[in-house]
TrEMBL record:
Residues 8-50 form the FecR N-terminal domain. GO terms for molecular function: sigma factor antagonist activity. Coiled coil: none annotated. It holds the Pfam family DUF4880. Residues 112-207 form the FecR protein domain. It comes from Pseudomonas cremoricolorata. InterPro entries: FecR (IPR006860), FecR_N (IPR032623), Ferrdict_sens_TM (IPR012373). PANTHER family: PERIPLASMIC SIGNAL SENSOR AND SIGMA FACTOR ACTIVATOR FECR-RELATED, PROTEIN FECR. This is Peptide ABC transporter substrate-binding protein.
Amino acid sequence: MPCEAVVRQAIEWSLRLQVHPCDTALYEQCQRWRTHAAEHERAWQQVQALTGELSQQFAALPASGLAIEALEQSQQRLHRRQALKLLSSVAVVGSAAWFARDVAPMQQWRADYATGIAQRGSFHLADGTSLQLNTDSAVNHAVGEGRRSITLTRGEILLDTATSQPGEGRSLLQVHSGHGVFETLAGRFVVRRDERQTRLSVIAGEVLVRPMKGQPVQARAGQDYRVSAIQAHLVPDPDMDASAWIDGLIVTRGMRLRDFLAEVARYRRGRVACSDDIADLRLSGVFRLQDTDKLLAVLPRTLPVQVDYRTRWWVTLRRQA
């Protein structure tokens, strides 16, 4: 995790670029700072992820448009410290209740690697392991004697250890979630942490699953598991391709509409739901995540539904009239 001084430098660079967005020389200076050290780039990505998350949350607040417009105008004429102070006051006065029930930005801020909503991130760890983060995800990484450890605090990741530490010196990789530990020496797999369970999908290799209070299970390539604190349950016929998000897709096979909409909701701010009378309609296909509004607009072509926008952030699907 970047030290506080480096994070402060990243914030300074971000504010300067916001105040002077057309300054080419300043942009090049920032680029040189980012490439000077891996810690600089990591701090920069964390600051940008949090900035994007805050911007989306401000946009969803009542009367936030006026606040953001005022902030943008002020940034053109205020010193960057004044702009930061104004940003803080908007956050405190306009959205205290909002942030009290949404801790995701703080998790992203404190994490070694993180993404905001609708963002994906790809990283190569020092041991050669490939780490990819899906939307709204956060992880911490540690290396100790004879083991490598990743803690998934939020969201979903894909890990590929195929190119890391070849030979007999390969150390054990452990992935921790709130429900168990997943161990492998070599493998490619997806881990997704939900509120009540962790999902595991093994693409290649083998992964030992250790529920917090249950018996360990060896998961093999092609297998999907749902892991609670007390047991690991094999899912014989998953209704969704667990790794399709790597390519910006949702790929479904007979998936319930309500479950599908819950997936889509992970990639956008606000509420996406459907009425009870169409919740069990089944959906199969390949859907692009680049524009979730376009994705939703496609659904009436294959299902007897209509898409109603109460606001930009409140979408409900109902049976076609």
